[in-house]
Amino acid sequence: MRDSISSCCGSVADNNPQEKEQGHVNNHTDDNRVTSCCAAEPAIASPLSGSQRVDSGFRTPIRIMQMDCPTEEALIRKKLGTMPDVISLEFNLMQRVLMVEHTEDALEAVLAGIRSLGFEPEVSGAQGELPPKTEPKKSWWPLGLAAVAALMAEVVGWLEPINGLSGWLSGELSNNGLAAVLALIAVGLSGLTTYKKGWVAVRHGDLNINALMSIAVTGALILGQWPEAAMVMVLFTLAELIEAKSLDRARNAIAGLMNLAPEKATVQQSDGSWLEVAAATVAVGSRVRVKPGERIALDGEIVRGRSTLNQAPITGESLPVDKAEGDQVYAGTINESGSFEYKVSAAADDSALARIIHAVEEAQGAKAPTQRFVDQFARLYTPIVFFIALAVAVVPPLLMGGDWFDWVYKALVLLVIACPCALVISTPVTIVSGLAAAARRGILIKGGVYLEEGHKLSWLALDKTGTLTHGKPVLTEFEVLIDPRAAQTAGHTIEGCYQLAASLAMRSDHPVSQAIAKAEAANFVNVSTAQKSPGASLNVDSFEAIPGRGVKGRIKGRSYSLGNHRLIEESGLCSSALEARLGQLEREGKSVVMLVDDQQVLALFAVADTVKATSREAVAELHQLGIKTIMLTGDNQHTATAIAQQVGIDEARGNQLPEDKLAAITALEKDATVGMVGDGINDAPALARAQIGFAMGAMGSDTAIETADVALMDDDLRKVPAFVRLSRQTRRILIQNIALALGIKAVFLVLTVMGLGTMWMAVFADMGASLLVVGNGLRLLRK
Ligand SMILES: Nc1ncnc2c1ncn2[C@@H]1O[C@H](COP(=O)(O)OP(=O)(O)OP(=O)(O)O)[C@@H](O)[C@H]1O
Ligand SMILES: [Cu+]
Predict the structure, then answer these.
(1) Both 486 and 529 in a single domain?
(2) Which pLDDT band holds residue 314 (cuts at 50, 70, 90)?
(3) Cα separation of 550 and 64, whole Å?
(4) pLDDT digits (tens, 9 = 90+) for 92-143
(5) pLDDT per residue as tens digits for the range 27-55
(6) Which of 43, 60, 141, 374 is most deeply buried (CB count within 10 A of its CB)?
């Protein structure tokens, strides 16, 4: 039977160097605790690559299928950690892969060390990847038989007073002898693995749960507590099995995301025919055909046909999206109506979906604060209880004339209670469930720490453009500000001004510039009198973007800039008349930029952006959750205030340069937990500074997934309150679980000392507690 979560119990001698790293998010190494604990189900391991040369030596991934619990990790760490040729160890219990960094010829010694612990290490050969591997299924019958034997031992124990029955069963055996035989059968059938593992641990000076259980059961056998010993062993094994099963559900929740993308795709062959092939083999640039109702296998761009797609598996948003030629489609999404062909833009293992899964997997590795605490606690708890048990067994009989039998028995019950399993597994199960639940809603959380800290969020700073608004402003006003006759002589016709501005704007991808570049010139310029094509762009030399202000460049030997009030002010070309007009437009929520040459303001352009319908709702939801909102925008104060009013934001700050945004976050953080949502580069420092940085529209952008703490797959701001709610719920469950686990232990401790607790009751309680906390954690998934 699987050695499992129960064995996630901290071990006495596991003092782990990595623990000292109090990094914010510590991705690898031992941090993969229990998430990864123990699978009973056949688990699929991903392909393993070969040794890699690095500066300090070699990095070799080693697969150890028997290693999926911290118990095993502790053993291996102990064994290898002291070898001089081993530079570092990184455990990925979830994948069951150990990454060893070692000196050149040390690999054989490392493998031998692992083998000496009773594990079978696998490394990939010279030819590269080791194929994925399926763990063989284990049979239930030995445990079933053991359970029957244990029950019979119990029954025989009860029947003891009835004389003659055992004689009827067997002429030779007394009742007690029969119970003993049955108990030994039960322990032998169910407990061999536990004994073996316990023995390996003890030999290596480690006191893990397998060792404790072996000691407890052996003690009970020595005391002649036959039915009890049998029951304890059977229940313990059963508990592990059930726990492993439920933990697998948490583990599979993430693997389940991977199954969103179908394994096969219909790809066009060189002769033009269509063939269904494995998605993993499809090259970038291939053409794939999709039928109605089919799931998309790879990321790509539609080259023929149109359809509506349900992107809920990735974005969490189930409203179908229309897609036509040139639009991006994503692996894992569902084609609803039409059929279309698309050109593959990323290999299967590089799709947006694959990156999401990778990020979630990494996130599990990063320990949440509660988990750190619990692990540390468990590390102390187990040895402390062990020594108390030892004292209980020895001191009262020796010093107070207590009954040896009584006190040794009490000590054994204490050993069972010494298992902090329920406590240790409660946290990771909850966090993993939360992470998976979030991923299913299109919220990618980059570490348990953010999920856990999210409940504290009290301020949310938001950027305006693209976050609250659509970020696609359109040109609403174009006004030439110089006298038409003067303009004529200076060579600045109306069309000319427009053309100059558009030529500058075309070179920038700032939304305001884009609006000017894309505007239908005909709506603003009298085309009949215009030059042949007013939209045609002019040559721009020494083009330059001026952050937070605008752009500038030389056209036909003269320099021009296109920028906001700040820019005009700084170049000394502002006037009160202009300011009045600016104020007017800005109060309507429009952003204004002006075209200037080195002497005067030639023209002004006002653009209006629309507020996303979801922004208003999101802000209202945030306020309901007690979170205050503040808008930080590079745009001017009037526009900021106007937009803030439209969406109901508490406070609006305009004219914010990146460093101002950063300063604003820093100031808020003095007495609050602050989150920030943004998209642009001008938000990057503030996003990095905020305790939780949210990036929107992450599906289309790798950098957003990589740099944000929380990536929202689409740009629906309501995902932020959804995140906060999930985070608060996770937090509640974490606290419930810790209280449950410790509470049950405390009750048993008291019962035992009072002489009321029996050993199998303790196992039962322990199992019950573990199941309770796992079930409680998994509740998050069901939402
Ligand atoms: N490349 C550009 N082209 C045109 N205008 C620009 C450009 N860069 C900046 N501006 C002007 O400067 C203002 C501030 O720009 P900035 O990029 O700091 O913030 P933003 O994009 O308007 O708003 P937010 O901070 O909400 O994203 C813009 O509103 C715009 O008027
Ligand atoms: Cu001014």
Answers:
(1) yes
(2) confident
(3) 58
(4) 665 677 888 888 888 888 898 888 888 888 887 644 455 555 555 567 788 8
(5) 333 333 333 333 333 344 445 667 777 77
(6) 374
592 and 498 inside one domain: yes
The owner of tokens 């460093």 is 659
CATH number for the domain spanning 515: value is: 3.40.1110.10
Same domain flag for 571 and 633: no
Query: Residue 626's pLDDT is what?
Result: 95
DSSP letters, 438-476, are: HHHTTEEES-HHHHHHGGGEEEEEE-IIIIIB-S--EEE
* 463 assigned to active site: yes
- Which of 96, 116, 134 is the C-terminal boundary of a domain? 134
The contacts of residue 645 (CB under 8 Å, 6+ apart) are none
Q: What is the mean pLDDT of residues 702-727?
A: 86
- Which helix (H) or strand (E) segment holds residue 152: the answer is helix 141-159
pLDDT at 735: 93
Phi, psi of 332 (to 5 degrees): 95, -20
Q: Is 492 part of a structural domain of the chain?
A: yes
Local structure of residue 46 (DSSP, 8 states): P
What's the CA-to-centroid distance between 590 and ligand 2, angstroms? 16
Give the chain's domain count. Answer: 4
416, part of any domain: no
Please tell me which residue in 31, 248, 299, 463 is annotated as part of the active site: 463
The residue whose C-alpha atom lies closest to atom 2 belonging to ligand 1 is: 550
pLDDT confidence of 561, banded at 50, 70, 90? very high
645 to 11, 461, 619, 625: CA distances (angstroms) = 57, 15, 11, 19
Q: What is the mean pLDDT of residues 481-485?
A: 74
Q: In sequence order, what are the beta bridge partners of 674?
A: 459
Lowest mean pLDDT among 36-40, 298-302, 641-645: 36-40
pTM (2 d.p.):
0.78
Q: Residue 328: CB partners within 8 Å, gap ≥ 6?
A: 299, 300, 301, 302, 345, 700
Residue 430, CB-side half-sphere exposure with 13 Å CA sphere:
33
Answer with the one of 319, 350, 381 that is the final residue of a domain.
350
**3-class secondary structure, 123:** coil
Q: Output the residue whose Cα is nearest ligand 1's atom 31.
A: 564
Whole domain around residue 75: which residue ranges? 42-134
CB-CB contact of 692 with 454 (8 Å):
yes
Q: Is residue 460 located within the same domain as residue 524?
A: no
Q: Which atom of ligand 1 is nearest to the CA of 504?
A: 3
The enclosing H or E element of 12 equals none
Element at 376 (helix H, strand E): helix 369-399
- Residue scoring higher pLDDT (606 or 746): 606
Average pLDDT, the chain: 80
CA of 472 to the centre of ligand 1 (A): 12
Ligand 1, pocket residues at CB < 6 Å: 463-465, 508, 510, 512-513, 545, 548-551, 562-564, 591, 593, 633-635, 680, 682
DSSP per-residue letters across 395-411: HHHHHS---HHHHHHHH
**632 and 684 share a domain?**
yes
The single-letter code of the amino acid at 484 is: P
For ligand 1, atom 10: residue with the closest CA: 550
One DSSP character per residue, 662-684 reads HHHHHHHHTTSEEEEEE-SGGGH
Beta bridge mates, 550: 546, 563
Band of pLDDT at residue 24, cut at 50, 70 and 90: very low
Query: How far is the C-alpha of 256 from the C-alpha of 6, rounded, in Å?
Result: 25
Q: Using the mean position of ligand 1's atoms as its centre, give its distance from the Cα of residue 549 in Å.
A: 6
